[in-house]
């Protein structure tokens, strides 16, 4: 019996080990790094450089989420990629394009556009730009569209201004050669100052330039949800006395990381946490990463925030046990039910085997009655051999654990009775 129980115990233990292995394999698979596709472009842009830093930082930190870049032609192309399901994430300027199937995760960069000129031009307000040449960096093309939008707010028609598209390296020569009267700067002043951009502006427009902010920023923001209000802080251009001398209200343009609405909330929350953590690890290599900020999660925010990012930002992200606690409970219940069911099955099977093994005792009792009434010595010998076969089978059942010692003792008594009955009947037949 102990041998049989041992085999059944090993089988039950093996079942539990197999189930445990399956659970471990499942959790191992779920905890493997997840790679998401990030659309960004064009190559060499500020967004592309920051995206590349994200890739390197997450790989170096062995984060649970990794990124694979999909290079695009710019914000509009990146928005198309994520809407078409060809990317999971996109980094872009929402004033150029807003994806319809993705929401904000993080604000990656914030800049405060303004006009800059010299005192000699006698331009003191945006309306004075009529009939003048206004320079703007032509890439991305959304810069020209933003300039026209600002001019329209002041009822300055695009045809009343000569818009001169410039490359980054053409701004300084164009200003010094007076090929432009003013320049619409978009990326020079940000929440973390772009020292290189400011150096270029001061080289182009001198140490005492005239700054013309977009003061009707609130009106522009009311008509375009991608435009926000902002401020060029006192001293943003440096110098002593500081330039500007007073903080100036203007518009704010953001670059944002968008995530597809179909991505799991916990996954996006984890990505948000990992990327914000890069502000410390990558600060020395990429100072502009300090400009990362969390978006407003208010319900009336102009651009919706992905529910997973909002949960992390608001401190409502589910913990590991919040996510999988129910599965642990269900698993424990399943293991308990499996154990109980397995024990019941093994108990029933054991009882059936014992019942089959004890059937030989009934056969011996029937055999005993037949032996005592037989009148044929040949038949008597056959009955003795049949008793031997029953004995052999009983010993086999005992070896398999189907019989305990008490059952074996009952068989031994029955076999002894059969043996004596055969001997007595042989003597009686001999005397006759």
Structure in words:
This protein is of the alpha/beta class. Among the domains are: 33-108 and 255-318, 3-Layer(aba) Sandwich (D-Maltodextrin-Binding Protein, domain 2), CATH 3.40.190; 325-431, no CATH class. The chain contains twelve helices and eleven strands. 33% of the residues are buried.
In a nutshell, what does this entry contain?
This protein is of the alpha/beta class. The protein has helices at 2-30, 46-60, 75-83, 142-153, 171-176, 195-205, 217-223, 265-281, 307-313, 320-373, 377-400, 405-431; strands at 34-40, 65-71, 89-92, 102-111, 114-117, 133-137, 162-166, 182-185, 210-212, 227-232, 248-260. Helix 8 (265-281) packs across helix 9, helix 10 (320-373) packs antiparallel against helix 11 (377-400) and helix 11 runs antiparallel to helix 12.
Can you tell me the CATH topology of one domain?
A: D-Maltodextrin-Binding Protein, domain 2
Q: How far is the first residue's CA from the last residue's CA?
A: 47 Å
> How big a fraction of the residues is strand?
15-25%
What share of the residues lie within helices?
A: 40-55%
Q: Write the CATH architecture name of one domain.
A: 3-Layer(aba) Sandwich
Largest sheet: 6 strands, mixed
Radius of gyration equals 43 Å
Unreliable stretches covering 5 or more consecutive residues = 1-5
How confident is the prediction overall: mean pLDDT?
A: 84
Shape: rod-shaped
Compressed to H and E, one letter per element, the order equals HEHEHEEEEHEHEHEHEEHHHHH
What structural class do the secondary elements suggest?
Answer: alpha/beta
């Amino acid at each position: 019996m102990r041998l049989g129980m041992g085999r059944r115990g090993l089988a039950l233990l093996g079942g539990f080990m197999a189930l445990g292995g399956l659970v471990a394999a499942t959790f191992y698979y779920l905890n493997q790094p997840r790679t998401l596709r990030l659309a960004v472009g064009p190559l060499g842009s500020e967004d592309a450089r920051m995206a590349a830093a994200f890739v390197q930082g997450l790989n170096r930190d062995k984060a649970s989420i990794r990124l694979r870049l999909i290079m695009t032609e710019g914000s509009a192309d990146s928005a198309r990629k994520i809407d078409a399901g060809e990317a999971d994430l996109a980094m872009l300027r929402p004033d150029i394009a807003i994806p319809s199937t993705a929401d904000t995760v993080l604000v990656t960069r914030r800049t405060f556009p303004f006009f800059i000129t010299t005192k000699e031009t006698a331009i003191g307000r945006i309306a004075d730009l009529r009939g003048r040449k206004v320079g703007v960096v032509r890439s991305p093309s959304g810069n020209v569209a933003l300039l026209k939008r600002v001019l329209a707010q002041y009822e300055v028609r695009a045809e009343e201004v000569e818009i001169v598209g410039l490359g980054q390296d053409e701004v300084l020569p164009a200003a010094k050669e007076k090929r432009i009267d003013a320049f619409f700067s978009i990326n020079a002043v940000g929440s973390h100052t772009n020292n290189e951009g400011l150096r270029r502006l001061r080289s182009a427009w001198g140490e005492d330039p005239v700054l013309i902010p977009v003061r009707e920023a609130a009106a522009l923001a009311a008509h375009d949800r991608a435009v926000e209000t902002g401020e060029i802080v006192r001293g943003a251009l440096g110098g002593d006395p500081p330039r500007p001398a007073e903080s100036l209200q203007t518009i704010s343009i953001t670059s944002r990381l968008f995530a597809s609405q179909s991505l799991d909330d916990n996954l996006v929350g984890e990505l948000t946490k990992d990327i914000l953590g890069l502000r410390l690890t990558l600060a020395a290599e990429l100072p502009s990463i300090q400009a990362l900020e969390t978006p407003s999660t208010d319900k009336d925010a102009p651009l919706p925030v992905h529910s997973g990012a909002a949960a992390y930002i608001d401190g409502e992200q589910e913990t590991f046990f919040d996510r999988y606690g129910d599965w642990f409970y269900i698993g424990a219940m399943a293991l308990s039910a499996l154990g109980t069911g397995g024990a019941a099955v093994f108990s029933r099977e054991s009882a059936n085997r014992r019942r089959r093994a004890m059937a030989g005792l009934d056969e011996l009792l029937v055999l005993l009655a037949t032996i005592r009434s037989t009148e044929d010595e040949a038949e008597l010998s056959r009955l003795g051999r049949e008793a031997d076969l029953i004995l052999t089978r009983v010993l086999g059942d005992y070896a398999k654990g189907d019989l305990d010692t008490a059952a074996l003792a009952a068989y031994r008594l029955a076999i002894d009775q059969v043996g004596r009955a055969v001997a007595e009947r042989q003597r009686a037949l001999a005397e006759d």
